[in-house]
């Protein structure tokens, strides 16, 4: 059994705040990314690596990046630009979810066709 006991969730346990984010922003980042939880449920929390960062903070086109490393999949990177960090986080989250689901579909075993 993993160290993950369900109390904090995979995001709370495995999300790292990278460049441009401060520790005080962690609760709002977790809220903005909370919809990721169910899409990451297929993996043991100990095997999940997530990092969120922002470039050009407070600039007109700041860029939020979410990087995910999940067992059995290539690294996944989702980016979003916007004036508001929270909005950019949500857009990057949506893109990450789309990519994760696409990769899960691509890597799931196929049933052989009957002839």
Report on this structure.
The protein has a 4-stranded mixed beta sheet. The model is unreliable at 1-7 (pLDDT under 50). The longest helix is centred in the last third of the chain and has 23 residues, at 85-107. It is globular and about 55 Å long. Helix 2 (26-33) crosses helix 4. It has 115 residues and is an alpha+beta fold. It has helices at 9-14, 26-33, 37-40, 85-107; strands spanning 15-17, 49-55, 62-69, 76-82. The protein has 4 helices and 4 strands, in the order αβααβββα. It is 36% helix and 22% strand.
State the gist of this model:
The chain has 115 residues and is α+β, with helices and mostly antiparallel strands. The chain has helices spanning 9-14, 26-33, 37-40, 85-107; strands spanning 15-17, 49-55, 62-69, 76-82.
Any chance you could write out the topology, listing elements then pairs?
Elements: H1 9-14, E1 15-17, H2 26-33, H3 37-40, E2 49-55, E3 62-69, E4 76-82, H4 85-107
Parallel strand pairs: 1-2
Antiparallel strand pairs: 2-3, 3-4
Helix pairs in contact: 2-4
Placed side by side, the strands forming the largest sheet appear as 1-2-3-4
Strand content is: 15-25%
What general outline do the C-alpha atoms trace?
Answer: globular
Got a strand count?
4
Quickly count the helices.
Answer: 4
Query: How is the biggest beta sheet arranged?
Result: 4 strands, mixed
Helix-and-strand structural type: alpha+beta
Q: What's the N-to-C terminus distance?
A: 42 Å
User: What value does the average pLDDT take?
Assistant: 87
As a percent range, the share of helical residues equals 25-40%
Provide the succession of SSEs. Answer: HEHHEEEH
Q: Could you name the ranges where pLDDT drops below 50 across 5 or more consecutive residues?
A: 1-7
CA radius of gyration: 16 Å
């Amino acid at each position: 059994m993993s160290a993950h006991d369900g109390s904090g969730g995979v995001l709370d346990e495995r999300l790292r705040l990278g460049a441009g984010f401060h520790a005080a922003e962690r609760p709002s980042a977790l809220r903005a990314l909370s919809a990721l939880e169910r899409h990451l449920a297929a993996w043991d929390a100990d095997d999940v690596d997530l990092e969120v960062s922002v470039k050009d903070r407070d600039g007109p086109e700041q860029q939020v990046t979410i990087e995910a490393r999940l067992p059995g999949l290539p690294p996944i990177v989702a980016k979003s630009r916007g004036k508001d960090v929270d909005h950019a986080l949500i857009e990057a989250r949506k893109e990450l979810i789309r990519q994760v689901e696409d990769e899960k579909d691509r890597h799931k075993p196929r049933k052989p066709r009957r002839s």
